[in-house]
Write a structure and sequence with these properties.
- The protein contains 19 helices and no strands.
- The protein is mainly α.
- Helix 3 runs antiparallel to helix 8.
- The radius of gyration is 32 Å and the shape is elongated.
């Protein structure tokens, strides 16, 4: 212990100094807190925000803003415009005040000495596109890579439109149920004593109930992909979904299409194979493939081929995997994976269409049965009402 000197006469004693071990204890506590936070993982809010970033609806709504920025930037850079002038032009014609502020933030970061792609992180682009642009900037191929990235994003949006058009088929059946279903309850209402004047009110109430139910189902369909993230069971839910008889094959095609599309774009941008595999696995949006992605990168690091590494994911069928192996041997990895990804996206759309047609057929059968039952009930109710009227007339005649 250090010797202490007494205070001068007339002065209060000095406050005791903190012990020397306090900084070490604080450091240990901070490290323990960091380790505990890492063990707990991200919070529920952070998981839900990340899931919303991967949500198809978010990607669908954000596409126009993202693609407009990249297309305009690509055209201006190809025309020889400097980055500050290009960003000023893009900001001037931004579609919203928030987007204008984002682009101005990108320009301010570049003025402060940041790189273009690092500054573009403020523009609201998806993480995979940012990493692809960073790889192209490092290899000096940014001006040539941007048109290809724009084409890839346009292709992804076209695939979303196809899937959306397929998902609209059940909505037609739902509209029939919403607006025709209440008319099938007239017979039941008449059996309960409703008069003909009360049937419009019965119909309006039935349509209102059906519309509320339809809105609830729509909200549930939008929120359902976020529920596993909120509960922290994303990986288990994804593995279960991949094992389901019909949905499993559909999601495998979707994941494989995204994987190969981003893999080809990454290699075309000059990314090394390990980073290309990592980005491709992230682009699938599948938590169940994360461990397989680590095994695939270890396979390449150990000297294996790209096709052998992708086989570790257990996602591609043998013909597609064989096409990838041939492209690796012929040096066509910058074009063939993207083509294979587009083919798998079309295959996923076909599977989804077949699934929707099956659902629609079952729904139509149930609707026809309900209509027949409603007609029978209405006829029975009408006959009961006529019998009551005849009895009433007979009693009045007596």
């Amino acid at each position: 212990m250090e010797p202490t000197t007494p205070p001068p006469p007339g002065e209060p004693p000095a406050a005791p100094s903190a012990p020397r071990l306090a900084p070490k204890v604080a450091a240990r506590r901070a490290a323990a807190g960091s380790a505990e936070s890492a063990a707990r993982g991200p919070s529920a809010g952070a998981r839900v925000r990340a899931a919303w970033e991967r949500h198809p609806l978010h990607a669908f709504l954000a596409h126009r803003r993202r693609i407009t920025l990249l297309r305009q930037l690509s055209d201006l850079l190809r025309a020889g415009q400097g980055v500050p002038i290009a960003l000023a032009t893009i900001a001037r014609y931004a579609g919203s005040r928030r987007q204008r502020q984002r682009i101005e933030g990108v320009a301010a970061r570049i003025d402060a000495g940041s790189g273009l792609v690092d500054a573009l992180r403020l523009a609201g682009l998806d993480p995979v596109s940012i990493e692809l642009l960073a790889a192209a900037e490092e290899t000096g191929t940014l001006d040539r890579f941007l048109p290809g990235l724009v084409a890839r994003l346009d292709g992804a949006q076209s695939a979303r439109w196809r899937l959306l058009s397929i998902l609209l088929y059940p909505c037609y059946v739902a509209a029939l149920v919403v607006f025709l279903g209440p008319a099938m309850s007239f017979g039941e209402a008449m059996r309960r004593g409703a008069s003909l004047d009360q049937l419009p009110r019965v119909y309006a109430l039935g349509v209102g109930r059906n519309l509320l139910a339809a809105c609830g189902l729509l909200l549930l369909a939008v929120a359902l992909p976020l529920l596993p993230s909120l509960l922290g069971i994303e990986e288990r839910w994804d593995r279960l979904r991949l094992r389901l008889p019909l949905l499993g094959a559909l999601h495998r095609d979707l994941y494989a299409g995204r994987l190969l599309s981003v893999l080809g774009a990454s290699l075309a941008a000059g990314t090394n194979v390990l980073r290309a595999i990592e980005l491709a696995v992230i682009a699938t949006g599948s938590p169940a493939l994360a461990r397989g992605g680590v095994a695939a990168m270890q396979q390449v690091a150990a000297g294996g081929t790209l096709s052998d590494a992708i086989e570790e994911l257990r996602l591609l069928d043998p013909p597609t995997l064989g096409s990838l192996a041939v492209a690796e041997r012929t040096g066509d990895l910058d074009t063939v994976p993207y083509r294979l990804g587009a083919e798998l996206a079309v295959a996923a759309a076909r599977r989804l269409r077949a699934l929707m047609m099956t659902v629609i057929a079952i729904a139509l059968v149930l609707l026809v049965l309900k209509i027949v039952g409603g007609v029978v009930a209405s006829f029975s109710g009408t006959m009961d009402a006529l019998d009551k009227s005849m009895d009433q007339l007979i009693q009045e005649g007596r």
